Amino acid sequence: MSDVTLARPWLTFDLGRDMQILSWAINRPGFVTARRIVWREVRNSDLPKGMDVREWLGTALQSQGHSDAVAFLTSRNVSFFTQSTAKIRRTTAHCVATVGLSNAERVGSRVDRQAQDWGTINVAVRLNSGLSQTGLIETLSIATQARTAAILDAGLALPTGLATGTGTDCIAVAALKGPQDYVGLHTDIGEAVGAAVYRATTLGARQWKSDVGSIQKRETGHA
Questions:
Q1: Which residues of the chain register pLDDT less than 70?
Q2: Over the range 34-70, which residues count as b (16 or more CB within 10 Å of their CB) and which as e?
Q3: Fewest CB atoms within 10 Å of the CB: 22, 76, 117, 210?
Q4: d(CA 214, CA 208)
Q5: How far apart, in Å, are the Cα atoms of 131 and each of 93, 165, 169?
């Protein structure tokens, strides 16, 4: 797991070589080819109202030599990143995650989160298996399912029910190009991705609840 470098406010996941990546990240979303997935920790003062966030991030990435990277933004302290590797026969999935739940939501409803820091759940997964774009789409869906299962199991209660994620989550999945189209839950790839993402997200949610969540509960009288 030595492919992850922490240099706060940056966290860098070096994939080891150029890989195809699918995400909805703020920098280089969609289907792209890149070697790195990076996180940039921010505070409210970094992003004043009216700022062009994409332009600001582009300049920041350029200063680090990361212009071609897929990039996340989070107010979660990136020092608290978690990671997990799952190996199922010949398939290995490596997940790196940062988990902040300050703007947690239950899918299908919304809570007023104005004037709060937004922690965000950001998940990156690297596979050693070759996938088609179709396979990459299904892998993204499984990573999302595993993220949701982990947050549900964390049991964060909201006025609308148990949280299923946050309002600003982002997930990126990376794999070599290959012919594999189908990677459902019955496959080695689906099992490995699900296990790695679930464990990394669960660890991150526990960390958040033990530090940030406990502070918020004391200050507001509720989680």
A1: 1-2, 113-118, 213-223
A2: bbbbbbbbbeeebeeeeeeeeebbbebbeeeebeebb
A3: 210
A4: 8
A5: 13, 27, 24
| Spatial contact of 89 and 12, defined as CB atoms under 8 Å apart | no
CB 36 within 8 A of CB 14: yes
Q: What pLDDT shows up at residue 2?
A: 57
Q: Which residues contact 95 (CB under 8 A, 6 or more apart)?
A: 83, 84, 85, 86, 123, 124, 125, 126, 143, 193, 196, 197, 199, 200, 201
Cα–Cα dist 157/148, whole Å: 14
Q: What predicted TM-score, i.e. pTM, was given to this entire model?
A: 0.93
Alpha carbons 146 and 218: distance in angstroms, whole number: 30
**Secondary structure of residue 45 in the 3-state scheme:** helix
For residue range 124-174, list pLDDT tens digits in order. Answer: 999 999 999 999 999 999 999 999 999 999 999 999 999 999 999 999 999
Task: Provide the 10 A C-beta neighbour count for residue 72.
Answer: 30
- Half-sphere CA count of 218, side-chain side, radius 13 A: 6
